[in-house]
Write a structure and sequence with these properties.
- It is a single chain.
- This protein is mostly helical.
- It has one domain.
- 64% of the residues lie in helices and 0% in strands.
- The protein has six helices and no strands.
Length: 137
């Protein structure tokens, strides 16, 4: 049952990413280009996602446990550290250069673009390499 709902959740977020056009790297790059050909429409997408997440998070945590598990698995760290800041910076630079972040890139795979496929292959390779690095927190 957990796998079914995980798949359903993934399909739902993928549909939302596709409808909002976040799978189009040019739209994302135009959103990030605030001094040039700025496209503010993704700000509305992000604001709506943040509102839904915030309300959902508050509502869900009022229960003792999730529907399909015995407990919640919440972050144990509550402070900013070097690894988090470095990762956020690398993510931001990569997003700004490529116009993709992981979710939209994976959602865009069915379009069969060679650029998207190359991005996802390199992203997976980066995950593999990062998992092998001796990073201290």
């Amino acid at each position: 049952m957990q796998l079914f709902f995980a798949l359903l959740s993934g399909l739902l977020i993928s549909a939302g990413i596709a409808v909002s056009k976040m799978i189009d790297p040019q739209k994302v790059l135009n959103f990030l280009d605030v001094t040039g050909n700025w496209d503010p429409s993704l700000a509305l997408v992000m604001a709506a996602a943040l509102l839904i997440y915030t309300l959902g998070y508050r509502l869900v945590l009022k229960s003792d446990a999730p529907l399909l598990n015995k407990q919640y698995f919440l972050p144990s760290k509550h402070h900013l550290d070097r690894s988090l800041l470095a990762g956020a910076a690398i993510f931001g630079v990569g997003w700004g250069l490529a116009g993709y972040c992981p979710g939209p890139a994976i959602a865009a795979l069915p379009a069969a673009s060679s650029g998207t496929a190359g991005f996802v292959i390199m992203m997976v390779l980066g995950w593999f390499i990062a998992g092998k690095l001796p990073i201290k927190n």
